[in-house]
């Protein structure tokens, strides 16, 4: 994972991992992977491997964090020490604290918070292997895990990044592109509501490139959204079949 | 000033904004008046204080020598830290930095880092071994809304008047000499925050507006008009159309402020 390509994109517009400019990495999504959790999901987005567990809704403790008119979402984004090239200290870094906050804020608009006063859910995100774009992949999986926990949602939230490598705006940067590229624009979207719930950027982009990148990321989100819904449906299809077998027995 | 807003006040702010007005009498796209004073702290290598409305932020820059990061042996080190000092607001408590102060620090850091405002290659004393470490400490002294912009502006202003100690190397040891040279800068990014209330966009939210806003977006705009950092915040959303508007508005405001500041 440490190979450093000389050129990020060649003359034919092919990127160092063989993708075209607007091509996503392969994705795998699975719902209901942690038996103990009320909701859970696993995502493989390129070489990213991320596990999300949701507990709740349950009475919020400590009590002073309770809200009398709505629920509270707590979110912990955490990277395993072995998830990156150089071992990462397991203590939460400033980056992880910030990402926990923006991920929480990206998920909140999707949940009918006022239906669960005084209660809360905990969203635990563990990055087992990181390959660039972990916050977006985390959001995609976390939204599935919240849905799996049975909370009524306005829409699923899906994350995808765009960015600039060499002089080209491209979709879904992987690790090397993220590190060596010119800019990274992570976006989270509720596709049915056309609502952007997370937007960040680092690097340098002209205003026109910024617009292109945001739109490209939104299109990427919409593609992942289809797979996300499919993953949720698959879980219930399996459950249905299991139930049928039991009845037949 | 009370920490929480009454429902009546919340409603009033929303209604005013529907009518294109604001609780403090500003128009939706009016930035508050601000003043920046530089070099108030003699002990610091650089400093600046901004007053934005009643928001007051002091930034001190300290420069020390240290080791570079192993992956960037030919660059100096920049670290930004934010302290939400308890005297600045009834909502602030003493203790280690919480997510709010870490977020502010990281937005300020990103604006400076991504625009390459500080010529970090000129901070190297001995490649891979010894470099200057620039500590930017943001100290919030009174919270009256829009700490992000205030902190970012004051940080860049403080870097502008930062002096690097002169040094010489004697027997492998770094010795400081008398006199200073100014910290070399490439650019001066300006960060503009835009809030969304009742579906309307407004610049530079005040403290009461911050408690009502659905979402905010902060954009750091570089000298050449390019965007070098973005952060959306708060548990609300923007439509793609609103983002386009916000981006335009941020660029306009940044250009206006740059003229005023003569940066």
Structure report:
The complex is a heterodimer of chains A (249) and B (263). Chain A is α+β, with helices and mostly antiparallel strands. Chain A has one domain: 2-Layer Sandwich (Ribosomal Protein S5, domain 2), CATH 3.30.230. Chain A is 31% helix and 30% strand. Chain A has four helices and nine strands, in the order ββββαβαββαββα. Chain A has a five-stranded mixed β-sheet with strand order 1-2-3-5-4. In chain A, β1 and β2 form a beta hairpin. Chain B is an alpha+beta fold. Chain B contains five helices and twelve strands. In chain B, β2 and β3 form a beta hairpin. In chain B, α2 crosses α3. Chain B is elongated. Chain B starts with 6 loop residues before the first helix and ends with a helix. The interface between A and B is medium-sized, with 34 and 33 residues.
By CATH, the superfamily of chain A comes out as GHMP Kinase, N-terminal domain
Regarding CATH, which class of chain B? Alpha Beta
Beta-strand content estimate of chain A: 25-35%
| Count of alpha and pi helical runs of chain B | 5
The CATH architecture classification of chain B is: 2-Layer Sandwich
Helical/strand content category of chain B: alpha+beta
- The overall strand count of chain B is 12
**Structural domain tally of chain A:** 1
What is the alpha-carbon Rg of chain B in Å?
Answer: 20 Å
Short key terms for the protein model shown above:
heterodimer; A: 249 residues; alpha+beta; Ribosomal Protein S5, domain 2; five-stranded mixed beta sheet; four-stranded antiparallel beta sheet; 4 helices; 31% helix; B: 263 residues; six-stranded mixed beta sheet; 5 helices; 12 strands; 35% strand
């Amino acid at each position: 994972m440490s190979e450093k390509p000389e050129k990020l994109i060649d003359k034919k517009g092919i990127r160092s991992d063989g993708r075209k400019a607007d091509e996503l990495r392969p994705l795998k999504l699975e719902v209901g992977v942690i038996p103990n959790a009320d909701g859970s999901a696993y995502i493989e987005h390129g070489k990213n491997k991320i596990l999300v567990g949701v507990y709740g809704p349950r009475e919020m403790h400590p009590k002073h964090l309770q809200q009398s008119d709505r629920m509270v979402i707590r979110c912990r984004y955490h990277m395993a020490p072995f998830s990156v090239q150089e071992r990462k200290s397991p203590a939460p870094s400033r980056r992880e604290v910030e990402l926990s906050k923006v991920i929480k804020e990206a998920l909140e608009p999707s949940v009918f918070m006022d239906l669960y006063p005084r209660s809360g859910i905990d969203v635990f995100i563990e990055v087992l292997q990181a390959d660039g774009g972990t916050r977006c992949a985390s959001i995609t999986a976390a939204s599935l895990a919240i849905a799996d926990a049975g909370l009524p949602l306005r829409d699923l939230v899906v994350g995808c990044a765009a960015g600039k490598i060499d002089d080209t705006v491209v979709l879904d940067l992987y690790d090397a592109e993220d590190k060596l590229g010119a800019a990274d624009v992570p976006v989270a979207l509720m596709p049915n509501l056309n609502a952007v719930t997370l937007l960040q950027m680092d690097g340098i982009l002209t205003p026109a490139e910024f617009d292109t990148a945001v739109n490209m990321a939104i299109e990427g989100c919409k593609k992942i959204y289809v797979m996300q819904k499919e993953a949720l449906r698959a879980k219930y299809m399996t459950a249905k079949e299991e139930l049928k077998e039991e009845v037949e027995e | 000033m009370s920490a929480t807003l009454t429902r009546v006040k919340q409603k009033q702010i929303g209604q005013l904004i529907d009518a294109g007005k604001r609780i403090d009498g500003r128009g939706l796209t009016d930035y508050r008046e601000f003043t920046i004073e530089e070099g108030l702290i003699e002990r610091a290598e650089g400093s600046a204080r901004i007053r934005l409305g009643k928001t007051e932020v002091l930034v001190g820059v300290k420069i020390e020598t240290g080791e570079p990061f192993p992956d960037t042996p030919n660059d100096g080190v920049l670290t930004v830290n934010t302290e939400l000092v308890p005297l600045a607001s009834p909502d602030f408590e003493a203790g280690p930095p919480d997510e709010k102060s870490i977020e502010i620090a990281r937005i300020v850091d990103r604006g400076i880092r991504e625009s390459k405002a500080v010529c970090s290659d000129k901070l190297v004393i001995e490649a891979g071994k010894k470099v200057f470490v620039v500590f930017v400490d943001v100290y919030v002294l009174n919270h009256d809304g829009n700490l992000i912009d205030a902190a970012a502006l004051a940080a860049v202003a403080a870097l502008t008047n930062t002096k690097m100690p002169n040094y010489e190397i004697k027997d492998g040891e770094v010795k400081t000499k008398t006199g200073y040279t100014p910290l070399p800068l490439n650019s001066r990014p300006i960060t503009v925050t835009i809030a969304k209330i009742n579906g309307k966009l407004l610049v530079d939210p005040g403290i009461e507006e911050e408690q009502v806003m659905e979402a905010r977006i902060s954009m750091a705009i570089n000298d050449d008009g390019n965007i070098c950092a973005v952060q959306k915040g708060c548990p609300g959303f923007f439509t793609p159309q609103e983002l386009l508007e916000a981006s335009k508005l941020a660029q306009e405001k940044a250009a206006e402020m740059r003229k005023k500041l003569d940066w």
